[in-house]
Amino acid sequence: MRESGVIRTRRDGDVLAVTLDRPDRRNALTPDALADLERVVTDADAPVAFLSGAGSAFCAGADLGVVRGLRGDPDAADAFARRGQRTMNAIEDSDSVVVAGVDGPARGGGVELVLACDVAVAAPNASFAETGARIGLFGAWGGTRRLPLAVGATAARDLSFSARTIDAAEARDLGLVTRVVDDPRTVAHDIAENDPAALSELGTLLRDTTDRAASDDAEAAAFARLLAEPE
């Protein structure tokens, strides 16, 4: 087992279990946690990495204490958006097949984590919401590009504008996750039974990174504009 800030890892055969381990804050992500997660997925040496959250939540997204501290400082807001983008891009570019196992709520940046993974599966008690619009923000870690790719443009607008919460079954129906299973870990282990070289090649070919740089630039700039004025 390896500890990396609030990111805990454990090798289980051909699966690297990666756990967001900050249950008292619903696994909310700080800049340091994002940097640790980037290092873990970049250095992953297993054919499959399984990403989950400790406690009752998958991930509450960005730590709101950090976000509140960005008010009035657009440069810091831009830097925070780009920190998150680098982490999500590292997940998308990982040599491992990254499987998200959502057991409990995924909110805001937690949904962006799901979107960055190669495969996302949900336990029956999972729920999802892009909640940024409720607090005058939006997910700026690549979600504005990845969400329409996953669920289609119309559903992406609905989820983003309404900030409504959807359950596991609706997330599956929309395409945000592929399956609802009692134990998401089993999906990661099933994938790991396949040929590692084939998994690596397929991962490179199946990921859509079209226009990622331009989308990231636009996201970070818009996020910084929303935080430019102090409260």
From TrEMBL:
Supply the SUPFAM superfamilies for this chain.
ClpP/crotonase
- Could you tell me the superkingdom of the organism this chain comes from? Archaea
- State a single Gene Ontology molecular function: catalytic activity
Q: Which family does it belong to?
A: Belongs to the enoyl-CoA hydratase/isomerase family.
Q: What is this protein called?
A: Enoyl-CoA hydratase
From what organism does this protein derive?
Halocalculus aciditolerans
